[in-house]
Amino acid sequence: QVQLVESGGGLLQAGGSLRLSCAFSGRAFSRYSMGWFRQAPGKERDFVAAISRAGGTRNYGDAVKGRFTLPRDNNKNTVFLQMNSLKSDDTGVYYCAADRTISSSTSTQLHDYEYWGQGTQVPVSS
Questions:
Q1: 20 to 30 Å CA-CA from 27: which of 6, 10, 34, 88?
Q2: Region 47-74 average pLDDT
Q3: In angstroms, rounded to a whole number, what is the distance separating the alpha carbons of residues 87 and 20?
Q4: Are 125 and 16 spatial neighbours (Cβ–Cβ below 8 Å)?
């Protein structure tokens, strides 16, 4: 059974930076593409970013392009979300997700991800 544990969330001011981590365990990490989603209060869970199994393909939501990056370390079974130039609109609970796939691409769709972490809070004050 795959387990995902996010960490790194915390209160920030707009303009700041934060790095989230997602530790993966239970299966072969390299067989999973990884995604980050976020859910603002009272809103649906939205796609933020995803990275393919080997890290060759990255996909970013329009709201975060140019500000967020998505490093992946297959030796440490960890995926990160580096968030820069944070805005108050980035506030939400950030979830890490894993998609067991043979594809080298990524998905922006929640239903494609079989495993989810518990989420970590990222409040950004303006």
A1: 10
A2: 96
A3: 16
A4: no
Query: Please, is 86 exposed, middle or buried when counting C-beta atoms within 10 Å of its C-beta (0-12, 13-18, 19+)?
Result: buried
CA distance 99 to 79: 13
- Residue 118's Cβ-count burial label (10 Å; 0-12, 13-18, 19+) is exposed
Report the share of the chain in percent with pLDDT over 90. 92
Integer distance in angstroms from the first to the last C-alpha of the chain?
40
Distance separating alpha carbons of residues 102 and 125, to the nearest angstrom:
40
Question: Distance between CA 121 and CA 62 in Å, rounded?
Answer: 21
pLDDT in tens, 11-58: 889 999 999 999 999 999 999 999 999 999 999 999 999 999 999 999
The set of residues, in sequence order, having a beta carbon less than 8 Å from that of 7 and lying 6+ positions away, is 20, 21, 22, 23, 120
Give the chain's mean pLDDT. Answer: 95
Cα dist from 56 to 27, 79, 99, whole Å: 20, 14, 15
Strand partners, 119: none
